[in-house]
Write the structure tokens for this entry.
Amino acid sequence: MARTLFDKIWDAHRVSTPKSDEASGEDLIAIDRVFLHERTGSVALESLMASGREPIDPTRVFCTMDHIVSTDEGRGRNDARTPGGEVFITATRAAAQKTGINLIDVDSADQGIVHVISPELGIAQPGLTLVCPDSHTCSQGALGAAAWGIGSTDAEHAMATGTLRLKRPPQMRIRVNGTLADGITAKDLILHIIGTLGADGAKRCAVEFCGEAVEALGVEARLTLCNMAVEFAAFTAIIAPDETTFDYLEGRRFAPKADDWDAALAYWRTLISDADATFDFEHVFDAKEIGHMITWGTSPGQAGRLDGTADASDYMGLKAGEVIEGLPIGGAFIGSCTNARISDLRAAAKILRGRKVADGVTAICVPGSMAVRRDAEAEGIDQIFRDAGFEWGEAGCAFCFYAGGRTFAPGTRVVSSTNRNFEGRQGPNVRTHLASPAVVAASAVAGKIAAPGNPSP
Ligand SMILES: CC(C)[C@H](C(=O)O)[C@@H](O)C(=O)O
Ligand code: SF4
């Protein structure tokens, strides 16, 4: 029977369908990797230890510090950005050391946001199952892994048993034909898709992105695309691994080596949906219709073209029919697991070179990992950001979400390269507009929402 890519990974990991689960349709699925972070992973680790159990294979469990850790340059990395949050860091460290899992601590050269460092270190690989108590784990499907977000209790279970019990999700295929116009990015593409299908448009499906425009994306851009799948209610997202994926992974720390690499490649090449595989839902988009996108509301589905108009939104301070381009801003943020990789920083630096952030705009860039930060510094990109008037941070989630601590002033309109624009997401009454790093940079310079081709005031 013809199978999808997701089916193939599922079937290869199906340990059994326990008798008690026949009616529920649940399968017992082998879990290859568990990733944790200090915000929710600490809870799972502590609870596991409290129950007298330990990870069945600690070498397959990874943990980073990203959510709570301070990202202010020069500040101690053991400091928290959330008042009183140090305990997350110390408790996670203690539990990780005790259980012997792979800990990527605050002072590690590998430290960074979980969904940035997992691909970077070659931990996410085609054909693997990977879970993490974090909703944006769907990002890692960009490598051809079945990767999804879970709760802390499931993380505990996955660590203890190497399995999870769950029902195979329905499946959706989103094909993007044609070529994206110059300067139009994966962020614009995903905002266009979510804006068209709505914030619940993916119907809890495992979504396979495919088509010419998706194949043309580099791995970093594919990560951006898959990152926001959960923002339109997907179970997860996946992209068939191809030469782009293999080139990206070769030589990375946890990628297979020598003969194992050849064997892995042979297997990975089978990971494509069969030509006659069927999906529960299918959508087709045309890449050439997509322009610079931005959200205007408080749901990621409230997205439109930058030169379009908004609906009324009290929270966002917008009237129906108001033109989005040109709205004055007070903040600009480039960071997060969506758009803080080296290609994102390069795109922004291209716009910022030789320019200055407009008066009255607080502009901050926080690289997604310390490796990205080092790469950027080696290329002089940090200097371009600093010269333009951007603050340059150390790696972490930073201003992507607010959990107390430093943020933008209430009422500030912020253009942000992140993935969530809910009320209060970036701070009390902060108004978040989601966009690509290029749009954030252009807007920072213009002091108002602006397209990259047109950054001057
Ligand atoms: C804190 C964590 C559980 C949360 C998530 O699951 O996504 C966070 O990363 C977010 O982006 O809101
Ligand atoms: S960067 Fe933002 S979206 Fe990503 S894991 Fe951190 S808080 Fe969640």
Remarks:
- Residues 158 and 164 are 6 Å apart (CA to CA).
